[in-house]
Design goal:
The complex is a heterodimer. By secondary structure, chain A is an alpha+beta fold. Chain A has a domain at 1-27. In chain A, 26% of the residues lie in helices and 24% in strands. Chain A has a five-stranded antiparallel beta sheet, with no helix packed on it. In chain A, strands 1-25-24-23 form a four-stranded antiparallel beta sheet, with no helix packed on it. In chain A, strand 20 (484-487) and strand 21 form a beta hairpin. In chain A, helix 14 (347-360) runs antiparallel to helix 15 (412-424). Chain A starts with a helix and ends with a strand. By secondary structure, chain B is mostly beta strands. Chain B has one domain (7-482): Beta Barrel (Porin). Chain B contains four helices and 20 strands. Chain B has a 14-stranded antiparallel beta barrel with strand order 1-4-5-6-7-8-9-12-13-16-17-18-19-20. Chain B is elongated and about 80 Å long. The chains are: A alpha+beta, B mainly beta. At the A-B interface, helix 1 and strand 2 of A face strand 4, strand 5, strand 6, strand 7 and strand 8 of B.
Amino acid sequence: MTRKRCFALLALLGASAAACVEPVTLSPPPPEGELAVGESREITLRYLRLDVEDFAQSLGPEELRRLPRKTLEETWLLDMDLRPLVANALDRFTRLPEEEAKALPQPAWNMFALLNMTPASARLEGTSLAGLSAVGEAVGISPSRILADLASVGPNEPLAPRSIVTDVVVDQVIATHPRARVRRGPVTADHPEGLYKVEKGKIALTLYDVATDLASLSERFGRAPLDPARPEGPAHPGFLLSASGLSTADGGFRMTVRLDVNALPYRGVEASHARVASVNSIGGQMGRAFDFKDPRWLEVQGLAEDLAIREMTMTIAEDPTYLAPGTRRDPRPLGNSPVWNAAPWSEERVLAETGRRLAKHIPPHCTTYSPAGEVSDPFEAVRVCIDGEGWVQIELDPSVILTGPPPRPSYYWDMLLEVAEARMHDGGLAEGAANVVMPVRDVSVGVRTEEVVARIRENIEESPATLREMAEALTQNTRGDADFFYVQPEGSAEDWLYFVAPEDIRKDAEGKAVRPYAYTSPGFFADPALTRKVSSRVEIDGDTTHEKVRIEPGDRLYMRDAEGRVFEIVAEEKPSLHRLALVVTRAS
Amino acid sequence: MSRRPLRIASLPFVFGALLASQSAGASGLDAPLVGSGQSGPTISDGAAIHWNPAALADIDRPELFGGVGLVAGRVGYRRERRGTYQTPDSLRLRGPMPVGETAPDKRGFSGEVVATPLAPTGDLFFAWPLARRRLVLGLGAYVPYAAALDFPKNGPQAWQLQQAFIVASYVTASAAVRVLPNLSFGAGVSYVGGLASLSKKQDFAELPEFQRAFSDPPIGQPNDFGPNAPSYVRELDVLSRPISITNALSHGISFNIGLLYLPTTDVRLALVYQHGAQMRYRGRFALDMNDPFFTQDLAAQGLRYPPLVEGDAELAFRLPKRITAGASYQATRSFRVDGFVQYVTYSDVDAFVVTTRSPSLAQPKLGIGPSVRAILPRAWNDTVWVEASGRFAISQLFTMSATMGYQSPASPEQTIDVGSPDGHRFVGGLGAVVRATQWLDLHADARAQGMLPRTVTTSRSDVGNGRYTMAIGYLGGHAKARF
């Protein structure tokens, strides 16, 4: 009832006004304005502990996404070997039902056809190898047989085994990506730039990737400047168009850590306004926060037995210009094709490199072919040779007359490159528009779940900085911009003031400090000129980071804030065991 | 002769303590009178609508009977803390308490806190005979309860009650029939309206929701909170949140039936049954959560209240049933004695159910919804009330009366608190009636009741231990007009 209504009712009843019950309202907030020079304000700080044990903080993707991105990105989980992933992706792609493959965009269909190309299915028209058909016609031998003999494969075997294609893609496309070579991590003495090497053929998975359901992978492994310092400089076009959905069991991915800490923040003072602020206390307790002997200190739930990526689209970009196959043997060992000067990740270069590696697996040999049918004096009409350097020559008996020119001598990879380039532009694709796009679904990651979990635990355990960031992010209770805060050492009722350290600065949603640590004279002093320091980094409860001083009623201290203003702090009589009353006066 | 009203009046008072699990006891501050001091279960006046509707049958002329009074009292409580308490500015969730974390000064007797309630009461009855000495109809409006308590805001009782303001009123329609020349039957139906406001410190340590919120993930800390929380986790500064419930209105229905039997011309016997009622007080609550512990420190774990939580509040409980047996004897032409025994089924009141509703209450991650329901066990005892009065007619125009009585307590030691200072109570009263005219009588009454000082040492969780005292006085006058 409102006071007015209460009075009205009581007037009717003739009762005492004392009967009116005031609704609970909030006390007026303390003054918030900035202190003027000479102005004082009284402020009371409370030291409240909430000692928790086995404080299990569970993070699912949604909660993870709320953590600062910087913390997530620096929380390395594992380096995922992409070789099995690419192999699986290629395998799944090449095994697509033909009808399904035909429904793909033209570049994808072209790649599908190319990867499945066998000597028997090879279409050579539009290339210099079309001359093989003429040769075949002349001697009555199928061109596919000649091609199969040359490649040392069966007529229906793929010309390019997937293992070799996988290796090339990993080496040429993935390993050359600037963000695949290093990962971000905490800045340490050994890693002053916060960059850590990643083994070739692997990509680093971080908590951020898990939090974004792997969507971050396409962002990270999309187009990227080769030199991060020169964003406008040459760039790697990237190899992932999209990725999503790390397979999870029912309930989804969850990561649970257990802490034994005081979960409440310290109360501090933002001197310029003489107002109470909060400083996260977890960082100062990291030494004892986690019980690494207890395997439950970090648990990962929800990863499926067989880890797989639900959807992934890999891409290899075509060079915008036509890179003609080589025509000469020199310069050795690769010949004169401009493809070898192209970026290693370009599609043509990948094809050429694939051909080069295939050639290495073909033993030097010559195959001779005679005309079909019974002849009284057999003669070698065609002779096809490949030497140890991959140079292919097709020699014809002068008596053989062809309708067209025979294939000219060239490196095996140049032959394949020419065919591949022709086939990649089937369907009328213009030069530069035949980017390879391979969409696949449910691709096995190729790493066992328990291995992933073990790596997660191991890597987080070995990174105190990440642990701290994570633990602070889990509690997220820094509020305001305190200059100093109030601490009572464990098991003691002594009152101490701690000056903030760089790690106490409040962080934004991205995990970055909201203000620089601009204190020129951190600590507490006995005089307004700040010449007699009374605080030190004496160890208390394992903390040697903070300038700190014990304070008792009547003590008078001085400190300078980040803007250079000097404040006087006087301790009043204690209101209670765990409270501290201070009068803060702006001195300058 | 003076009479106390039905003890129903005391029940709203428990409202004042309901949110503390240590809520109130029984007939704390009943309005001492309904009708005048001459009214009672064997008396045929307008107040029979309340006391015994069968007695209306003896009214042979239309009668208007009304009056006003003032109730004043003194309720004293000297809390004795017998348990061990944590230092109030700490927050340990469970025992044992380490040395240095207990508050040695929080033990033994505190200074006495006193409330001096002052509240009006009044009533108005109308009886209308329809068929001479056969059927009488009645309509009455009366306030059997009106109380106001104002304890110190930060006194040792603040977790039980700070302020309370309670009014309960009945509007009853009755009918009486004379079935035999010496036997009457009567019944009445009552609308029971209530209004209440109160304030106190809500100790979150005793809330089961809070106990679960801390014991279940994501906080997951074993704790000693809950309705039976031991003293060492109670009354902590951070968990003591001011709460008020204001403008709480209740609407209920009840009825009574009675018999009046006159075996001889000098003897009257009465038997009355007053039914209980389901009461629901609905009002607004305001809860001060303006402590960083509740507003920000554990926000990542889902504990994030706005500084001020406001919403709807409801208190539900069942009023007890009462059976009253009364008798009177006209010893001489000028002297009469009467009395009654009333048995009250306060054991019906086994718990109070308090429901607060507000979207701001919801803490989904902690399993706390927008509606918080608390069941507060009471375990009251049935009570007995006996009274005897003597009336002496000094002349045809002037009559005096004197009353003595006793009420047994409803609250066991485990659940008593300052919201209803309940104990063995003794009643005394004096009254006078002056016949001003043939159609007008004037009544004046003074009544006092005092509770034997009650020292409680076994209060549940040490909430209500201490020494209770109470004295209540009533002064009022009535006029009875016959037409």
